[in-house]
Amino acid sequence: MKSRHAKGDQAGIDPKASAPRDCFGTFPLSTHGVPEARRVAAWRDGIKRIVRLDVEALPDVCFQADLTIRILPGLGIISGQHSPFRVGRSRTLVADGNDDLVLLVRTGNGVLSRRNREIPVGLGDSILLSNGHVGSYVFASPAKILALNLPRAPLKPLLRDLGVTRLGPVPRNDALRLLDNYLTVLENDRVRASPQLCRTVVAHVYDLVALAVGATRDAAAEAGERGLRAARLCAIKADIADGLHRGSDISIGELAARQRVTPRYIQMLFEAAGTTFTQFVLGERLARAHRMLINPNLPDRGIASVAFDAGFGDLSYFTRSFRRAYGARPSEVRDQATQS
Predict the structure, then answer these.
(1) By CB count within 10 A, which of 27, 70, 272, 279 is most buried?
(2) What are the beta bridge partners of residue 88?
(3) Neighbours of 83 (CB within 10 A)
(4) CA 323 to CA 333: how far, in whole Å?
(5) Does residue 203 share a domain with residue 105?
(6) pLDDT digits (tens, 9 = 90+) for 86-106
(7) Distance (Å, whole) CA 26 – CA 190
(8) pLDDT, tens digit, for every residue of 117-155?
(9) Distance between the two ends of the chain, CA-based, in angstroms?
């Protein structure tokens, strides 16, 4: 079957968001611009066709939601924020045969109702659910959510147990933390536009999900060499970018402590990616300087000031490194940007 690709970009409930499961792309699902009396019905129809869920507003609560749904081969991602509401799978929906797994990586505090039990869930906790079981979750307060919809078949060989006893709250662990951060990779248009790169990232997500909820011994070993490494490198790069943005010194020792690994492990990750920790940090500093030099809002910013803000203490070293990376002096790049 040939896949259809689409990208929704309209405010409110986008009719394209009622796409079949093989329609890959990014779809907005927002109540913005929708009359309050119609919000729940319109939103319920939109999300039911995508992730097969019932949605119900809570009494005396103005229902609001602003989510983004990304549908990729073998993976659905829901992210955004919403007001309190109830979501679940009724007996009618369960009869459709969809037994996909749903992992709420990040959710708001509330109550999970399953098998005649009510389980309290704290803010930011994770929950593993199955579309093949009747149940519901009440979001008791406004929250930011990050959820995954995963087909059961490719995950089954990776997990120790997919029985009913495995469903429910998932204790916080390092794999969940890395998964939360790694999913930002799929916000990159370049990743989604490359089928091969997209498949690789989705495979990494499967690895991390398996590690988070209980992988078999063989799957854990393979995930440690594949998805876990990729996610750690992604988290380390994000940590470096955050440090540069705040103007902090980048120390591999402090970075390793924050990421709960050794400095040598960080060096090995970068070496496996074809570079070094030092080269990557230098490249990021130079890229930051380049962005400042071509910024039309900073035409009078001195070269020395740009170099200092990018983390360079030696102006001549900055100039040599910049010229080696971009084939022109910082002043020449500034002049070209000003003229254009």
Answers:
(1) 27
(2) 54, 136
(3) 19
(4) 10
(5) yes
(6) 999 889 989 988 889 999 998
(7) 13
(8) 899 998 888 999 999 999 999 999 999 999 999 999 999
(9) 47
